[in-house]
Amino acid sequence: MTVITHSTTPFAGQKPGTSGLRKKVKVFQQPGYAENFIQAVFDVVQAAPGATLVIGGDGRYHNRAVIQQAIRMAAANGYGRVLVGRGGILSTPAASHVIRKHRASGGLILSASHNPGGPDEDFGIKYNGANGGPAPENVTEAIYARTLEIGRWLAVDTPDIDLDVLGTVEVAGLTVEVIDPVADWADLMESLFDFPAIRAAVAGGLSMAFDAMHAVTGPYAHEVLERRLGFPAGTVRNGTPLEDFGGHHPDPNLVHAKVLYDLMMDPEMAPAFGAASDGDGDRNLIIGKGIFITPSDSLAMLAANAHLAPGYAAGLKGIARSMPTSAAADRVAEALGIPGFETPTGWKFFGNLLDAGKATLCGEESAGTGSDHVREKDGLWAVLLWLNILAVRGISVADLAREHWEKFGRNYYARHDYEAIESARADALMAELTTALPTLPGKTFGPLTVASADSFSYSDPVDGSVSRNQGIRVLFEGGSRIVFRLSGTGTEGATLRVYLERYEPAGGHLDAGTPAMLADLVAAADGIAGIVRHTGRTAPDVVT
Ligand code: VG1
Ligand code: CO
């Protein structure tokens, strides 16, 4: 085997604390760019000689080119075995499972998640460790530092392999197995959920629409929903992964999955259940006939009913939610007598809780829900847990939601995103807000009085590590809340996220419209942070 040492100049790679390296495809196409990052990963993680590496992505433009190069680099860096999904496909949760099941030392997941794809759009790479989860902060910081000093990358000089044929090939002494990207994950789902009950409900008329958004979940949804559960062909829409996702944002929210939303709001045409997932398959959108379920509510409702699925029949050890996610899940944890955890945004913070057996279900307001079955959020897993619950209980989504709110109260919730703001303006807004924090308690904004305000800091209950500046929390008397934070996943300028939450106790207004219920909070958000003044924007770009 001849290893070729390519010399390279350092570049600022992944910002520490973000989920992988996300940039425009054009940036990734610069000579040595992806290679720099991959080599920095290999240099930092120092896998044992002969170790197994998992490689796969969401099928977006540039996926195959980077996979071929990553295989040549894995061979040169001493890996013994690579498992790669056929066609270069592996959803993020499936990659997490393959890493765990096949005892790999880690994996490279190629995706920019819900960001658009194509020659002029986004690409991304992230590294997951042996537990199947996103690399923790100390590792991503070390990788970042390495990208700033790296001077060479290693590869063998071998031709591309055929990614479309299952089987094993040798690449300069490295064993490369092209695996079925769906089978392992689909078997795992069948072990967790009551497939016979769902099949019976489908035979009895339970209908659904699943929008794969031309992204990675198409093959997974076809296999599980249509082949294994018996939903009719056509249940999965946009089920063929495309390099540009058909020109759309594969982001399962009410803006980008509007076609599905409109279908679900049509009293004549709507099936009983609607769902969608994102580019890399880790997010989920849940819509019942005539009713959208916020991701925060979905986490709470799933937690309250999870024992109905065989994989969770023994009960939950704990429920974890990211800080901006609504407190709905906390009320369920309290009722179940189990711990509730509040972590910073990003799935990596759930990893320690899951590994330590402290939490079973986790969720984020950004449409991520998952459990200890893998170490990533899992879009179709959430869809299947919903189906399991609906099938066993024989209840509609609307009735289940109603029942939940009547018991626990309702957390009205919305997130307002201001996208592609000039970074300097966004930083100025956050800096001014941070300085003003001590002056806020006692101030009033319309009918709202600030009870407390702080910058969220998390100390990990497992390893004691502390993560500071994870978002600004402003709590009002009566339990309403506004959270301000800057996105860590954008590729253009800065995105300001404003999270609005109002709690209405059981017996209160459970059927009101969300915009009306949150209007005072929207006004208060501008009063507190000066959004219009700093950004020049009078309305958010996306409301979810
Ligand atoms: C966003 C979401 C966050 C999620 C992250 C990765 O981050 O808000 O909840 O964990 O995306 O999701 P940010 O920093 O832009 O707010 V995914 O599906 O892009 O891996
Ligand atoms: Co995603």
CATH superfamily of the largest domain: Alpha-D-Glucose-1,6-Bisphosphate, subunit A, domain 3
Number of strands: 27
Percent of residues in β-strands: 25-35%
Largest sheet, order of strands side by side?
2-6-5-3-4-9-8
Are there runs of 5+ residues with pLDDT below 50, and where?
A: none
What would your notes on this structure say?
The protein has 544 residues and is an alpha/beta fold. The protein has 3 domains: 3-180, Alpha-D-Glucose-1,6-Bisphosphate, Chain A, domain 3 (3-Layer(aba) Sandwich); 185-408, 3-Layer(aba) Sandwich (Alpha-D-Glucose-1,6-Bisphosphate, Chain A, domain 3), CATH 3.40.120.10; 410-543, TATA-Binding Protein (2-Layer Sandwich). It is 33% helix and 25% strand. It is built from 17 helices and 27 strands. The strands form 6 sheets. Strands 2-6-5-3-4-9-8 form a 7-stranded mixed sheet, with helices on both faces. Helix 11 (328-336) links the parallel strand 15 (319-322) and strand 16 (340-343). Helix 2 (33-45) crosses helix 5 and helix 10 (295-305) runs parallel beside helix 11. The chain is globular, with a radius of gyration of 23 Å.
